[in-house]
Amino acid sequence: MTIILFSLLIFLLILPFVPGVRELWRKEDAAPLYINMESHREPRYFGLAFRKMLKRSLAGYAGARGVFSISLSKQEQIEVVDTAAIGDNSNIKNIYYVEKTLQTGSKVVFEKEIYACGDVIIGENNRLRALACDGDIRILQGTKFTRWLDAEGNIRVDEQCSLGVSAACGQELSISRQCLFKRLYGFPVVTLPCLDAGKPVTEKGESFQTDGVRQDEPERNLSIVPAHSRQHCDFIAAHSLIIGEYAIIDGHIKTHGDLTAAPEVTILGNIFAEGNIRIGPHCKVLGTIFTQGHILLEKGVTIGTYYTVKSVISKKGITLHSGVKIFGFVSTDGEGRVV
């Protein structure tokens, strides 16, 4: 009996070390976790799916005008008009389909979705559920969306608007101060007023060149990248990383803490952080940015280029200053705000 108990004790002492010894022998977890920073979901899903569903439901009413009953996820009433100019303080209860242009006055409420085939101008302090547009959208001050908006062309948003869970377009999405958002997509997304910080490296026809050869092994020992330096490697920081002004990094960055970039820094790769990310004025990041913390992009920051779609993704929140330009997708589980 004593031998059995002693053997059991030895087994229990050895058991916790078995996974570690197995890993040392087989090295299954030797490589870092792979994250595909180039992948992205369809950012205009809401608008594209709504268009398809609505057109299918209206197939039997081609050319007709008036109020009809259609089947979407349930039976709905839809009002089909040619061109619409809606007066102040109006309340539209049905789904609204406009064959041409739509313009609204102030304090108009739409209780259901809108689809406009032409351009749209939404007046001040409107309240909308969702809007799909085949042209351009202009949104005046104080308007709020509860769900989403989508345009084939451009979207321009004035101050103090709330853009619901998603705002996306096929061309430029420009947003003014004191606007709130969750997800954005445009090519590019721009925060107003636009700033002229000189000729950026991301203009059409340009590429960015660095001298030197990138080293194969990442730099793991630095917590501060010197100002005015050129680094030709990836960076992996155990804690936080500070990048000095005018530094150029030809590589990717991963930090288990915060990342702070001083003004005029250029990063050619992706950024991944566990903490908060602060990108200083007039910095340029040619890759994707992802963090579990908060992202702050100061005035004049450029993310991505005209040639590829990049993402700025944060779990806790995103703050954008004026003159920011992002070529692609912006998303946060927290609050997105333009200041």
Write the layout of secondary structure elements.
Layout: H1 2-14, H2 18-26, H3 45-57, E1 66-71, E2 75-81, E3 84-86, E4 91-92, E5 95-98, E6 102-104, E7 109-110, E8 114-116, E9 120-122, E10 127-133, E11 137-139, E12 144-151, E13 155-157, E14 162-163, E15 166-169, E16 173-175, E17 180-191, E18 224-225, E19 230-231, E20 235-237, E21 241-243, E22 248-249, E23 253-255, E24 259-261, E25 266-267, E26 271-273, E27 277-279, E28 284-285, E29 289-291, E30 294-297, E31 302-303, E32 310-314, E33 317-320, E34 325-338
Parallel strand pairs: 2-5, 3-6, 4-7, 5-8, 6-9, 8-10, 9-11, 10-12, 11-13, 12-14, 12-15, 13-16, 15-17, 16-17, 18-21, 19-22, 20-23, 21-24, 22-25, 23-26, 24-27, 25-28, 26-29, 27-30, 28-31, 29-32, 30-33, 31-34, 32-34, 33-34
Antiparallel strand pairs: 1-2, 17-34
Structural notes for this entry:
This protein has 339 residues and is mainly β. It has 2 domains: 45-171, no CATH class; 224-338, no CATH class. The chain has 3 helices and 34 strands. It has helices at residues 2-14, 18-26, 45-57; strands at residues 66-71, 75-81, 84-86, 91-92, 95-98, 102-104, 109-110, 114-116, 120-122, 127-133, 137-139, 144-151, 155-157, 162-163, 166-169, 173-175, 180-191, 224-225, 230-231, 235-237, 241-243, 248-249, 253-255, 259-261, 266-267, 271-273, 277-279, 284-285, 289-291, 294-297, 302-303, 310-314, 317-320, 325-338. It has a 32-stranded mixed sheet that branches. Strands 4-7 form a two-stranded parallel ribbon. A hairpin with a 3-residue loop joins strand 1 and strand 2. Residues 27-35 and 197-202 have low confidence and may be disordered.
